[in-house]
Design a protein that fits this description.
This protein is α/β, with parallel strands linked by helices and 263 residues long. It contains ten helices and eight strands. Strand 1, helix 3 and strand 2 form a beta-alpha-beta unit.
Length: 263
């Protein structure tokens, strides 16, 4: 799943840069000039980083990346794994550069907000496969939103609360195939795309509510929903083609842009 998530984050940020350039030609040149490090200069936070796979990928793309997790063992695993990659661990002479590129902390988004006199904020905040496990999603989402700089990006991936998701993620993945431990998921905690859209439109005022009422119809420069599908015959995840039936009924990505000014 990590490659499709990383690709989505990278492509969405680059598309925004290109759209905001004075001319299309300047936009294309800006993106081209970034080369293999398209996230260079961006401060990135991964909330609930787990073993650090997303963090490492974003750091390799040039982002100054901080991964945080409530589990100290996850932080230890992520730190150990990163130390095995010379591009991330670096030599003793480049230790300062390494600290700027990739760092891990044993903390939560709420604790990070309260960690100092000045509220830390990031150009990009990601939280992948975390929302469906938290007890108070509104509180968690608000803390993630507060960590985004004005004009910054928030990326989430989670699971919709539908009969299909219960069958695929619990009945099949847990109970029959044993791909994950039983009890990993609680279907009642899954969040529908429409609920995310409502929270970010009504509570946070980041996006305009879709006039059609469909969560998939969003202002292109404010938010986006994309489904993710697993192809067992190919052994990989892909972005679900737009418009297919049940596109957002299981795993999906949500992107939102924080307004540059208070609304």
């Amino acid at each position: 799943m990590n490659p499709v998530r990383v690709g989505y984050v990278r492509d969405k940020i680059l598309a925004t840069m290109e759209d905001e350039a004075p001319t299309p030609a300047q936009g294309r040149e800006t993106v081209r000039a970034l080369g293999a490090r398209p996230l260079a200069g961006l401060d990135i936070l991964d909330v609930g980083c787990g073993g650090g796979l997303l963090c490492e990928s974003l750091a390799r793309l040039g982002g100054r990346t901080l991964g945080i997790d409530a589990s100290s063992s996850n932080i230890a695993i992520a730190t150990l794994h990163a130390s095995q990659d010379p591009r991330l661990s670096g030599s003793p002479s480049s230790s300062n550069e390494r600290q700027q590129r990739l760092e891990y902390k044993h903390t939560t988004s709420e604790e990070l907000l309260a960690s100092g006199p000045e509220r830390p904020q990031f150009d990009v905040v990601c939280s992948m496969e975390v929302l469906e496990h938290v007890d108070h999603p509104d509180k968690f989402l608000r803390s993630c939103a507060d960590l985004v700089k004005p004009g910054g990006h928030l990326f989430l991936s989670t699971i919709s609360r539908t009969p299909l998701s219960q069958f695929l993620t619990i009945t099949m993945a847990e109970n029959i195939l044993g791909l994950v431990s039983r009890g990993t998921h609680d279907h009642t905690k899954y969040v529908k795309p429409s609920e995310l859209v409502q929270f970010f439109s009504d509570e946070l005022r980041w996006i305009q509510r879709p006039p059609s009422g469909s969560p998939g119809t969003l202002p292109f420069d404010q938010a986006e929903l994309r489904g993710m599908s697993y192809l067992p015959w190919a052994g990989k995840w892909i972005l679900t083609p737009r418009g297919v039936p049940m596109e957002l009924d299981c795993n999906y990505l949500f992107w939102a842009r924080k307004p540059k000014t208070t609304q």
